[in-house]
């Protein structure tokens, strides 16, 4: 009788541990996306992206938020790892950008992380050229 109880407890513990591992790896643990290797969901100009967010932010979020987009525009400001297109599209790069691009038309791929109402900017993360 005692032996059956021990086997039942061990089986229950194994099931519980297996369920915990499945839950962790199946739902909680997500690998980081590699935006550079992803095919963009949208190819759009910086001005069109800004127009979409200014006209209807909720609709624009439903289209672009957390999507990989390739954006074309004129560089208006840059730092080591940030390029700003058309004064209002903020592109954060994964690595420092040694090339000076001010006033040049560029194509940048990144993940759209939304519209910042305070700075009135659309923000892209994990950007690459």
UniProtKB/TrEMBL annotation:
Segments passing through the bilayer: 6-25
The keyword Transmembrane appears for this protein: yes
Protein name according to UniProt: Uncharacterized protein
Keywords of this entry: Membrane, Transmembrane, Transmembrane helix
Keyword Transmembrane: yes
Organism: Flavobacterium hibernum
InterPro entries, per database record: Protein_unknown_function_OB (IPR024422)
